[in-house]
Amino acid sequence: xxxxxxxxxxxxxxxxxxxxxxxxxxxxxxxxxxxxxxxxxxxxxxxxxxxxxxxxxxxxxxxxxxxxxxxxxxxxxxxxxxxxxxxxxxxxxxxxxxxxxxxxxxxxxxxxxxxxxxxxxxxxxxxxxxxxxxxxxxxxxxxxxxxxxxxxxxxxxxxxxxxxxxxxxxxxxxxxxxxxxxxxxxxxxxxxxxxxxxxxxxxxxxxxxxxxxxxxxxxxxxxxxxxxxxxxxxxxxxxxxxxxxxxxxxxxxxxxxxxxxxxxxxxxxxxxxxxxxxxxxxxxxxxxxxxxxxxxxxxxxxxxxxxxxxxxxxxxxxxxxxxxxxxxxxxxxxxxxxxxxxxxxxxxxxxxxxxxxxxxxxxxxxxxxxxxxxxxxxxxxxxxxxxxxxxxxxxxxxxxxxxxxxxxxxxxxxxxxxxxxxxxxxxxxxxxxxxxxxxxxxxxxxxxxxxxxxxxxxxxxxxxxxxxxxxxxxxxxxxxxxxxxxxxxxxxxxxxxxxx
Length: 500
Known about the structure:
The longest helix is centred in the first third of the chain and has 27 residues, at 124-150. The chain is an all-alpha fold. The chain has one domain. Helix content is 63%, strand content 0%. Residues 19-35 have low confidence and may be disordered.
């Protein structure tokens, strides 16, 4: 039977070879047989699947929309809507302070309230629907941005889905399985590798720390981002700004990805054949310049929505650096345009906004340890526990009998190990980590509200999912049998030619 199967297989190969050699060299029939076409179709299906998953993840946001009359009874909301109705001039907000008169330039966000006021009047359910739709738009814009930045369907889709779930309580359904998976990894790692902790302990620590990142770092103690945006109308300023900010970043990243050339890498023995995987330098489309122009317009709209957008040029520079690290020949000249938009915004703001700080601004500004705590929450969370750890140790040896010191040591080990192991996927990890810090930076000097973390947490989702990816890769090592050293090769090897 085996000999018959071998003969049948050889007959099939010879028949196929004879058919291919009978086709002329330049025949168009050869084109459909090209493997890259099959790979392209698979890639398209993966992106469609990722997009469908992101759309489904937005359903909880839509279902969580608020219709309570209390939406309109908030003090800030009540004053804002009364000012809009009294003036009844939507475009007048472009040349002056916004309705709360606390020295902020937010005409685009104010227009969102103007539209709702015309459509829904005093119907709170309409305002709640708009809030939910804005959050959904932010999730979709995040998916587009990560699609262009990473070009990986699973990573972009998982990050956008995570950000969608962070609006609701459903995100915690992901955390418990990861926690138990980390414990099982420790158990199986000990069984497989015993005291060789380097083969299983890093996986456990990275998985445990990724839980903190996946939870949105517990919204940094200021409340959930869903509660500060879906259930609170003034939080709309952050969501409107985030829609335009992510759209600007996505348009620019797509411009570089689809029209920039690539730096050639030196081929290695592990590279697949060039006929199957080689990509030629991208040819600029006729209207390629439309993408960076659209990015400039979105930046201008973001500046008119919320003051946090002043960090957008810095975020755009970080996007360009990421694309350069990925091998694209970035056109740096567009960065000048992004920063010039910022200069124009600052000049316009100085012209139309009353001088000096308002009473609200003086009340909200802060300095001192609170600023450092907020910055370390984003950059190195375990540092904020050092002071409490030292205080515990002042109690003497008896404190070693409590769980507090060991809890801090475990937290520090998780944090440091996760950041060190992130080097395995450092390009995407650094992009999500660094751009989120850039986005949050100016908000550290004001008293915290949940919507301050909205745009940074959207970008941070890339870092969280990348850490989970690294943790799973390390867990595969922990669960796998320990490798064995191959015996030393004889010199000379049996059967080799004698040396001369």
